[in-house]
Design goal:
Elements (H helix, E strand, L loop, with lengths): L1 H28 L15 H10 L6 H13 L13 H36 L4 H15 L2 H15 L12 H29 L4 H7 L4 H38 L5 H11 L2 H29 L1 H6 L1
Length: 307
């Protein structure tokens, strides 16, 4: 396992470098200039040149990328051009809100997805299965921002049960968690159902039935355990996607998270902040994939035997 972990980490190094180069290139190819947000009305070309040189934007892109990457590898994310604050401080303020939302949504989608998928598999081709799969299909096709607006309309405007926006207390977390978590619930439920149906057709179950073991115990203790292996893989990938998918949801609910910071910085063309936000989201996907591979290797003896 240690050797497998080291190999997987070494594979992530070129991926990290490639992702950082793509992020940097795309950001600098977007039309616009952060200096426009700093100059006063009527400022001349001389002032623009001074501001451009101050933030190093007059250097070639390759040099700018090397300076930025060197700082990132040393833990320095740079200074925000428009906000004029260290990027690390802005990230430190926004990231806890995004992590809280993402972890709660992941826990919600994991629990209810596995429960619904298990019920659907146990009642295969009967009305509970058809009802759950219909709801799951609808939940997976509804856009997150539209679902968030709908939840605000019903539970905040009409019923007044939860606040419309902000992050003052736990009640402000309910609607964003539902918005982000429902899509993940649909995915986990579908994967759990398919995996349990496939695991339920394996030969070793005949031996368990022959031993007189109760069907409910067989399904929950043996079939579900085998079915959780692909579910864990999906959940590990969802770690990064939940943080990324929460970008629009945080904007809809006006939460002071990473998504709100990213959208605001994009509008201002604040290169260091946008680059740091996108790099963190990309690293979340990479680390989630790594965690999923390690957990799958720990759960499945066949994977460990192949290491």
């Amino acid at each position: 396992m240690l050797g497998y972990f080291i190999r997987r980490v070494l594979v992530l190094i070129p991926v990290f470098l490639a992702v950082s180069a793509v992020i940097f290139s795309i950001i600098h190819l977007i039309p616009g200039d952060p200096i426009d947000n700093l100059l006063k009305i009527g400022a001349g070309p001389e002032q623009r040149e001074i501001m451009t040189a101050r933030y190093g934007l007059d250097k070639p892109l390759v040099v700018q990328y090397w300076i930025w990457l060197s700082g990132v590898l040393q833990g320095d994310l740079g200074t925000a051009i428009v906000a004029r604050r260290p990027v690390a401080d802005l990230i430190a303020q926004a990231l806890p809100h995004s992590l809280a939302l993402g972890l709660c949504a992941l826990a919600f989608s994991t629990f209810f997805g596995i429960v619904l998928g298990t019920i659907a598999a146990l009642t295969r081709d009967r009305w509970p299965d058809q009802l759950i799969m219909t709801v799951v299909l609808l939940g997976s096709t509804v856009p997150g921002f539209w679902l968030g607006l709908l939840l605000i309309l019903v539970f905040s405007v009409w019923l007044g049960m939860f606040p419309v926006s902000g992050a003052r207390d736990w009640s402000a977390m309910v609607l964003p968690v539902l918005t982000v978590g429902l899509g993940g619930t649909a995915l986990v439920a579908r994967v759990t159902r398919v995996a349990m149906v496939e695991a339920g057709q394996r030969d070793f179950l005949m031996l368990l039935h022959a031993k007189g073991m109760r069907p409910a115990r067989i399904q929950l203790r043996h079939v579900l355990r085998h079915a959780l292996i692909p579910v864990v893989t999906i959940l590990s990938l969802r770690i990064g996607w939940i943080l990324g998918g929460a970008v629009t949801v945080e904007v809809v609910f006006a939460r002071p998270g990473l998504g709100t910071l990213l959208i605001k910085s994009l509008n201002q063309h604040d290169y260091p902040v946008v680059q740091a936000c996108l790099l963190i989201l990309a690293m979340a996907v990479m680390l989630g994939t790594l965690a999923g591979d390690l957990i799958q290797a720990a759960m499945d003896p066949r994977v460990r035997a192949a290491l």
